[in-house]
Design brief:
The complex is a heterodimer of chains A (about 350) and B (about 350). Chain A is mostly helical and about 350 residues long. Chain A has one domain: Glycosyltransferase (Alpha/alpha barrel). Chain A has a two-stranded antiparallel sheet with strand order 1-2. The radius of gyration of chain A is 19 Å and the shape is globular. By secondary structure, chain B is of the alpha/beta class. Helix content of chain B is about 40%, strand content about 20%. In chain B, the strands form 2 sheets. A 9-stranded mixed beta sheet of chain B has the order 13-12-11-10-6-9-8-7-14, covered by helices on one side. The longest helix of chain B has about 35 residues. Chain B is globular. The relative contact order of chain B is 0.14. The chains are: A mainly alpha (about 350), B alpha/beta (about 350). At the A-B interface, α12 of A face α5, α6 and α9 of B.
Chain lengths: ~350, ~350
């Protein structure tokens, strides 16, 4: 299966033109994800204009004084990505201090799982927190050479795996403790939760040297997750809003993010080339069909923290045009042409 | 006539008779070929005769699209390019599912239901086929609505602080439905449009109870309050007589200005300049343009194997809203449309 680079480049341009009209200066999860995705597109399609756009936004942020890493928003890692793409040290300023403070101050549940930053009861955990936290830990390890950081990331994945992974399906629950009962597991398997979980594994593994003692453990974790996920991809290439329910709506955001990180895992040789390359290209082809003529992307689930009912996930509306959906779409389009 | 000439003439006659079916078949083929041009996209219209005539007139000579009135069974037999369903809203879902199962792409006007299970059945049918299942949301193709969405998305009036939806005389907007058994239908269309314009869902709604209103419905009650992510939506369904020329209007109030979107392509903006600027005035002819564009978008989606603008997932907010409005009418309280995570609440 092949996808023409020109087709994807055109799709990227259409989405970029629409989304870039918004003011992305404010540091929000969706804006940062969009900027991060533009860095991937810049590399994939050799278009500096995307990187320049990001740098321009960062300059504006710098002038307004909210440039640094933030505890409120650690689901994306824009400054780190900027350091990778520009090589400028200024983007890493204070990163290690930020990571240390986060490690020391973040709340933990009884089993040691890191919890939501604003959770006074210290029991609300979610895959979003895991992927953000573990990525920061492993990057701190990669920058300092101290494997203690890596151990923390692997340890969190271990704890979370025990808490959230369903043995039967191999899929992950979105979170735990998001109800009066601290041990309550969010029901069902929200598609975006699977995708963010894979992102965490992939970003963590990317920082580990193969010589690291727990490298094999993360490798087998990403393999088991990828193998579980591929079972639930539909004929068209999409994953659905509730991953194991094929009659829930096809969900574009999660599918795009899964495509990006499965492709990365293949490129890095963490998972076998087949069937994952075909699955990824099929997913990208499928996601392209949800691009509207105005550059908006449809069927992206409304983003949420963990819910208490499966119905709640199943009936989350999906409106086209929001920034997060655009970002995930851009990542999928860039995936086949990245080399790093 | 001697015996020889009799035989000769008989043979000619027999040959002629034998060739009739062949000629007939040929004629049939020729007829078929002339009836359907090679690139013509045939929409089977499953609707009333009156609606068919109205729609045909509105569609006009749209590029490569032909509308023919068929029953669902005939549409399946004829293997039409696609079907358009505008039957009574309560029967649309049944036809939609049947046609999709037969592999016919379907563009349907909203099959309203307050039962979430009906949405699930619809989504299940859409998931089980590879052909597009579209929902005809005509307002999304009105130039003023497209412009309003762009202005709002680009943050032209800054961060939104509130939205006001005013419904005056919905019958003046030819794109709005009117069903005696579902007085909320125009409201559903407009609130679906609102959510599309802002790319975010309505999270909760409260229908203000008015004991004198008969029959009890969210429309006759006059006022509803809605909530989006971080601003309120005030919905008024009692006509504003100072604004009687307009079927409906939406006023978006932002920190840096306001945008007013009205029926029939009206769009105005007021920003830091301090004066209302008319981006486009009312023009009833724009209704047929948006219908044409909706049909063309769907035909193109079928040809290109992509998803149309309006999809079955677009029915989910309507279903949730209708359900919540009816609940709210009974309880008098605000009702959530979307489940909120633990610890989050909305006050209405």
């Amino acid at each position: 299966m092949n996808i023409e680079k020109e087709t994807l480049q055109h799709a990227v341009e259409v989405v970029f033109q629409r989304t870039a009209r918004k003011d992305c200066t404010l540091q929000t999860f969706a804006n940062d994800l969009f900027l991060e995705s533009l860095l991937y597109c810049s590399e994939a399609f050799g278009r500096n204009v995307y990187q320049e756009y990001v740098l321009n936004i960062m300059n504006k942020r710098e002038k307004q004084g909210f440039f640094q890493f933030s505890r409120k928003q650690f689901y994306t890692f824009l400054p780190y990505n900027l350091w990778i793409s520009t090589g400028e040290e200024k983007y890493l300023k204070d990163f290690i201090r930020f990571a240390s403070e986060l490690k020391e101050s973040i709340g933990r549940d009884k089993d040691g799982a890191v919890v939501a930053p604003d959770d006074g009861r210290k029991c609300r955990i979610s895959v979003m927190i895991l992927q953000g936290y573990a990525t920061i830990m492993s990057r701190a390890g990669a920058l300092t050479g101290d494997t203690g950081w890596f151990d923390e990331a692997v340890n969190q994945f271990d704890i979370y795996r025990k808490a959230l992974r369903d043995e039967k399906t191999g899929l992950w629950h979105h979170g735990r403790g998001w109800s009066d009962d601290p041990s309550f597991l969010s029901p069902g398997f929200w598609n975006q939760a699977q995708a963010w979980c894979l992102r965490g594994m992939s970003e963590v593994l990317d920082c580990f040297p193969p010589s690291y003692s727990e490298y094999g453990k993360m490798l087998s974790m990403i393999n088991e997750t990828a193998l579980s996920l591929i079972r639930f991809q539909d004929k068209a290439g999409m994953w659905h809003q509730i991953t194991d329910l094929p009659d829930s709506y096809p969900e574009t955001g999660g599918t795009a993010l899964l495509a990006f990180y499965l492709m990365k895992a293949v490129r890095k040789k963490w998972i076998p080339e087949q069937p994952f390359t075909d699955a990824t290209l099929k997913a990208i082809t499928a996601v392209l069909k949800y691009l509207n003529r105005d550059g908006s992307v449809s069927n992206v689930s409304y983003f949420t923290d963990p819910l208490r009912t499966e119905e709640g996930y199943r009936h989350l509306p999906a409106f086209s045009g929001e920034t997060q959906g655009a970002a995930l779409f851009l990542m999928a389009c860039a995936a086949p042409f990245l080399s790093t | 006539m001697n015996r020889r000439s009799f035989l000769e003439r008989s043979m000619v006659l027999t040959a002629g008779l034998l060739s009739v079916p062949a000629i007939s078949n040929k004629a049939n083929t020729i007829r078929k070929e002339t009836a359907k041009e090679p690139h013509e996209f045939i929409f089977a219209a499953i609707c009333s005769a009156a609606r068919f005539g109205q729609m045909k007139a509105m569609l006009g000579p749209s590029a490569g699209i032909k509308l023919v009135k068929y029953t669902p069974a005939r549409a399946i037999r004829k293997k039409v390019s696609a079907a358009w369903i505008a039957r009574d809203y309560r029967h649309r879902q049944k036809h939609l599912i049947r046609l999709l199962a037969a592999g016919i792409p379907v563009l349907a006007e909203a099959p309203y239901s307050e039962e979430i299970s009906d949405f699930d059945s619809l989504q299940k049918a859409a998931c089980s086929t590879s052909v597009p299942a579209g929902i005809a949301l005509y307002h999304r193709f009105l130039p003023a609505c497209i412009s309003a969405r762009e202005l709002l998305s680009a943050g032209r009036i800054g961060k939104l602080t509130s939205v006001q939806v005013q419904i005056n005389q919905p019958e003046r907007d030819p794109l709005l439905p009117s069903y005696s058994f579902l007085p909320e239908a125009p409201l559903l269309v407009l609130l679906n449009l609102l959510q599309w314009l802002l790319s975010q869902p309505l999270l909760a709604i409260r229908v203000v109870r008015k004991e004198t209103a008969t029959p009890a419905s969210a429309v006759s009650n006059g006022m509803s309050m809605g909530a989006m992510e971080d601003f309120p939506v005030r919905i008024t369904t009692v006509p504003n007589f100072y604004e009687n020329s307009s079927a409906w209007s939406m006023l978006f109030i932002g920190e840096k200005g306001q945008i007013r979107l009205g029926a029939n392509n009206l769009l105005e903006i007021i920003d830091t300049s301090g004066a209302w600027q008319r981006q486009s005035g009312e023009d009833p002819n724009k209704a047929s343009l948006s219908i044409r564009m909706c049909f063309e978008d769907f035909a193109l989606a079928v040809k290109e194997g992509r998803q149309p603008e309006g999809k079955t997932t677009d029915m989910l907010p309507d279903c949730l809203l209708l359900n919540a409005m009816h609940q709210s009418l009974q309880t008098g309280k605000g009702e959530l449309l979307v489940e909120l995570p633990f610890g989050k609440a909305i006050r209405l």
